[in-house]
Structures are given as C-alpha cells and as structure tokens.
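Narrative summary of target 7.
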Amino acid sequence: MLDPVGSTSWHNRHLEYFKRLDALLGASGPANPTIVVIGPGGVTRFATRLLNDAAQPRRSRARKLIGDLARYGDQLLRRVPGMPIRSLEPVELERVLTVPHRLAVVDRSQRILAAVRRDLPSAECHLTDISCEPLPVAGDVVIAFNVICRLEDPAAGMSHVAKALCPGGLLLIDDRSADEHLRSRPDFEKIAPKTHRRAG
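Modeled conformation, tokenized:
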C-alpha cells in the first residue's frame, strides 16, 4: 500500500491565521504552549518552486495557471516512491511564531513526518491516523486545516481532536469542517476566522 501523503498545499496558504495565532498567544496564551499540527500535507521538492505564494496578492493569470498546474501535477508526482517531499505548513508556522513553544506534528504518512524531521529536527513527530485512534499528545493549540473533512470517519477524527485540545485552547480549522462538526458543540466558540476556542 502506498504511503498516504495528504493534500498538496502552497506557500503561505495559512499565513494570516498563523500570524493571528502568534498575536493571540503573545497577548494571553499559556507560557510555552504545546502546538499540535495535524495532517499538514506535503508537496514534492520539484513542484515546490512552481507553487503560488499566498503572501503575494498580485499574480498574473499565467503565474496563477503555473501554480495551479504545479499543485495538480504534484498529486501524481508525490505518489512516486522515493520522490522527495516537503511539508510547508509546519515550517511556515515556525517562521511566524515568536512565543516559545513546543511543536508536535501528527500525520498518518511516514514520508510527511520524515520531511518534517528533516526541516524541523526539534519537532515531535507522531505517526497516527486520527480517524482510528486518539492523538498521542494534548495541545494548547491544535491546527487541523483541511484534515477532518477528508477522513474516512470525520466524526471520530473530530472527537479525537476535541479531546486532545486543552480547556481554553485554540483550534485552527477550515470552515467546511467547522460548519459540519463544531456548529452543534457548545464547548467551542468562534473567536476569529478559522479560529475557535474551547471552553475552559
């Protein structure tokens, strides 16, 4: 069976949410918070250079087309065994955060975790399928962009994520997953775009 490398991302896709997280943690967060990134996805090193950069708002149509083609082409390339992979999200999060913290990355792909270890040797890496088993680490912040909605059992995955988030903690999650799984939960309050706080 092929290693289940998640969806292709692109440069600075979640930059604005990471910056807001840093401000929230700096203003009123716990000392040395544990931040858990779930299923950050990956991209081949070949396609990385061709991806669009969300931090650059003005892109020509040709440049956007090249970036989109790189993303779709990458979905085929990354299935080639031994193709070098990068995981952009954890590295970009680390660049933005100014508060001291502990970083843990949870994924069901050995290749993604190997890529994270290569770029961020200090990150804790845990091989876990959250639709089948609980998270092996609790977090003051849990980041799960475009993960829950792609699971075989989204409800179980969301339950495991909620249990792993400390009371008063922050959950960064895509709108689709939030609409389907948080709307009926009184223990979560939306405090900013794609950012929810668990009741403490």
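The chain has a mean pLDDT of 91.
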